[in-house]
Amino acid sequence: MRMKFFIFLGVFGLASSAMLVTAALPAGGTITGKVTFTGTPPKMRPIDMAKEPYCQKLHNPPIKTQDVESGPGDTLEDVVVYISVGDQASTPASTPVRYDQKGCQYVPHVAVMETNQPLQIYTNDPLAHNIHPLPKQNAEWNKSQPPGAPPIDTKWEKPEFIPVKCNIHPWMHGYFVVLKTSHYGVSGADGTYQIKNVPPGKYTLTAWQEHMGTQTQEVTVSGAETKANFTFKALPY
Fold first, then answer.
1. pLDDT single digits (tens) 71-116
2. Total domain count for the chain?
3. CATH code assigned at 51
4. What angle do CA 128, 129, 133 make, to 5 degrees?
5. Cβ-count burial of 229 within 10 angstroms (0-12 exposed, 13-18 middle, 19+ buried)?
6. Which of 97, 116, 178, 180 could form a disulfide with 92 if both were Cys (CB 3.0 to 4.6 A apart)?
7. Inter-CA distances, 135 with 9, 22, 26, 62, 189, Å
8. Residue 98 burial by CB count (10 A; 0-12/13-18/19+): exposed, middle or buried?
């Protein structure tokens, strides 16, 4: 009996130690910030959709090009902020990223995904579209989608910023941003972004805007929240 009791205590002690070790593991933090600009932003021109009456009727007043989307307080929308150095390799996300052709627009304008993450491209309009990505590191392709066609299922093997266009509707323009990391955020209309579940450590953050280029800064994640703001300089259009 004495020996059996001793063994029970030993097992209990190991279990208690394991619980203590688990509880002591550092939790992931969140990187937050705002993206703004200085100077005069380029004026985005209204898009003439007269060649496609169905889409023209959907946009009154006409929508503008989205190369630079600025907001109140000199904020910038659709800026991709991601960990470019210091992140650990992880299994690519299995949830598909959805990209829509709707009202003769690409929605979202900037779609972010990981390498080898499934991408599904839909058409929602009662007219033909085609989608023509222009990669340099991955294989280029050009596919048509008639009304009611099933989604195009694809993925990208290499990290890259890929412009996307439609040969049928030349005003349609967007980006696929393919990253090696799962730690990224995209700024909203108020310029703010959020990157969640970042393990403690030192990283390089990169912010990318399709017209204004890139910026980087070093950050150290050691608590629940780490601030990292970016300010771009407006460039001529």
1. 999 999 999 999 999 998 888 899 999 999 999 999 999 999 999 9
2. 1
3. 2.60.40.420
4. 160
5. middle
6. 116
7. 62, 44, 39, 29, 27
8. middle
